[in-house]
Design brief:
Rossmann fold, about 35% helix, alpha/beta, two-stranded antiparallel sheet, globular
Length: about 200
């Protein structure tokens, strides 16, 4: 059984999608062991606890990035976590943390990477005038929104779209492909070849 830890900073909608996929048998051989938030008031913590998942707050203030990441890693190791999923976690991870969980940290980003990395990807897409955007699940490496791509979904950009309306449609696809990507990684039926994930 692979044990998953999820890092959040806000409402945790992708965490909920993962939790429901795991409990519904769509991610065979997995269980969610822990949800960690760096924001005490994050709605996702209560949403995790409502589902019987342990949720804890670890304050990053007053600590270096690596100090905070080491505190998170200690909690994850304490619960024998195998795989770490970022679900709206709004901090960059330190190189130390990424090495500690090498090839075992997943992130979902609301664009078709490598287009529009960083914050406000949906606003960037609207500003640029693209006809399609979407979302990407990837393994995390030491560069921002980088690392081998596991799954992507395309979402059309409609005339009159705002960042908010585009975000809502992308989020529906995030909730679909994140569990699929996690299921693939948990299964072990893939290999990493440079920047490619080969099933």
């Amino acid at each position: 059984m692979k044990r998953i830890g999820i890092l959040i900073s806000g409402r945790g909608s992708n965490m909920v999608a993962l939790a429901e996929a795991v409990s519904g048998g769509k991610v065979p051989g997995a269980e969610i062991a822990l949800v960690i938030s760096n924001i005490e008031t994050a709605a996702g913590l209560e949403r995790a606890r409502e589902r019987g998942i342990e949720g804890i707050f670890l304050n990053h203030k007053g600590k270096t990035r690596e100090e905070h990441d080491r505190a998170m890693a200690a909690e994850l190791h304490r619960r024998s976590v195998d795989l770490v999923c970022l679900a709206g976690y709004m901090r960059l991870l330190s190189p130390w943390f990424i090495r500690e969980f090498e090839h075992r940290v997943l992130n979902i980003h609301p664009s078709l990477l490598p287009s529009f990395p960083g914050l406000d990807a949906q606003g960037q897409a609207i500003e640029y005038g693209v006809k399609a955007s979407g979302c990407t699940v990837h393994l995390v490496d030491e560069q921002l929104d980088h690392g081998p791509i596991i799954k992507q979904a395309v979402v059309p950009v409609m005339p009159g779209d705002t960042a908010g309306s585009l975000s809502a449609r992308i989020l529906d696809e995030e909730h679909r492909i994140y569990p699929e990507a996690v299921a693939l990684i948990v299964s072990g039926n893939y290999r990493i070849d440079g920047r490619r994930i080969i099933e």
